[in-house]
């Protein structure tokens, strides 16, 4: 019976996903050797260097994945909350028993092995989220239905960000929004996320620029008008409610008109004028939502309220929550500071390395920027610059196509699931991988702030490789169970 069961599992495994995983991981191993290579090294099989260590991590990851495929698939659903609770306790305990490493309190040392529990937290959070949202009769009808899922991702996110001081690892939990959206979460929430990022950038970038008239700053003025433009755009193009849009616009114009008029005699703080205009539009939309019983208008009221609080809290978050090195990186990215030898050094050297590779690259082990160690963290967070320098545009594009194929394959697997638990979990996996690839490549290319997250299956490190492998293996096990049920 055991032999027949193992054969059925093997026949149900999605081998295309495993092939993509192995190709990416082996290509990553070659680039780890290339990025950490020094001229006195003799062999890629030398286990004293990083390539040799990564090969050990990869071998153990494959074995670990095989073990996971042998575990009964129901265990992940039945024990989901227990896994999650144990993970939360581990995250809380980690800062207490570890030492500070580059400002982070997230690395547990067990003998010769150092592990980062935050890398495994994503997997167990995905299981807990999938378990809760797959309950019988559960549907995402409004924001209240998302309260518990938001708490499930918010608790580990807050612990990792505040207690362990790992902003990059914490932000990855935003990727769960993809699974929420697939389960019926309103597109307004995703719009909130994009708008929140834009507001943060506007407030931080222009918050120190004074208005030419009255008091206040350009950042708050632009942010307030940005919120109004989004509301009017949704009312006109999505809700087709021209009347509400016109009344909202007139009220906003009156607020600013009165401010300009009073400013002739007395200096007016236009930050407060903007808040007054947002208060007006929020109250008006709330009254219309209650009167007409329109849920979409209620979502817009929530957007105005959250955006207003965000505008007021951005400056506090930027100066009180973010670490000094994180603030400098954002300021360099936004053009507020020029620090080519400090915070901007990594990105500048990375761009030089990638650009020097041109179309076909300099060749394996021929990169000068990486061999001479100009790029810090070039085998971990910045390993993509090694691909660009030694394999060129063709190699870089090929790697991105491999990631695209893997993510699309996972989405395909998610859509063919027969139960909600497996589908939601698979979408969580797709979202996590998509977030990691997008942010990592974006920061290496200087398009996003450097927040320090690895390239999945590619960057050097046992914790990330094990974490992603467990994440993927559980999904494959759940998918194999689907195939077996169909055959049965």
Overview of the molecule:
By secondary structure, the chain is mainly alpha-helical. The protein is 70% helix and 1% strand. The chain has 20 helices and two strands. The chain has a two-stranded antiparallel ribbon with strand order 1-2. A hairpin with a 2-residue loop joins β1 and β2. α1 packs across α20 and α19 runs antiparallel to α20. The protein is globular.
What brief labels describe this structure?
two-stranded antiparallel ribbon, single chain, 488 residues, mainly alpha
| Proportion of beta-strand residues | under 5%
Strand order of the largest sheet: 1-2
Principal-axis shape equals globular
Low-confidence stretches: none
Helical fraction equals: over 70%
Order of SSEs: HHHHHEEHHHHHHHHHHHHHHH
Largest sheet: 2 strands, antiparallel
The total of helices stands at 20
Q: Could you give the count of β-strands?
A: 2
- Derived from helix and strand composition plus strand pairing, the structural class reads mainly alpha
Radius of gyration: 25 Å
Gap from first CA to last CA: 14 Å
Q: Could you tell me the mean pLDDT?
A: 84
Summarize the structure.
This protein is mostly helical and 488 residues long.
Write the layout of secondary structure elements.
Layout lengths: L1 H11 L2 H22 L13 H21 L3 H5 L1 H18 L10 E3 L2 E3 L1 H17 L13 H17 L3 H5 L5 H6 L4 H20 L11 H21 L3 H21 L7 H23 L2 H27 L2 H10 L11 H13 L10 H4 L12 H32 L4 H25 L17 H26 L1
Antiparallel strand pairs: 1-2
Helix pairs in contact: 1-20, 2-3, 2-18, 3-20, 5-6, 5-7, 6-7, 6-19, 6-20, 10-11, 10-14, 11-12, 11-13, 11-14, 12-13, 13-14, 16-18, 18-19, 19-20
